[in-house]
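re the bet — no i am not wrong, look at it urself. input seq straight from the record:
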Amino acid sequence: MAVLEAMACGRSVIASRVGELEAMIDEGVTGFLVEPGDVSELAKCINQLVNNPGLARSLGNEAFIAARRKYSISTVLDQLEEIYLSLIA
């Protein structure tokens, strides 16, 4: 949930390459994914964003757009409706 909240606030995201996070983050567009436990890769990504505020802003803007497009209330409700309708068909 923290990743989605950060994206909804227009923040770039760095997360481990696990589970649903891989589907949520578009590598190099909305944030960065690192292998679990890879501290040096995590540090590299953090430094990249700290030292390049324009990149951080750009990723954050794209993250905001992606969060609104993929996870808005209307989008999620439409997806749930499709699931429920498929169950009763």
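see?? Residues 2-88 form a domain with the Rossmann fold fold (CATH 3.40.50.2000). told u. also Residues 40 and 51 are 16 Å apart (CA to CA). so pay up
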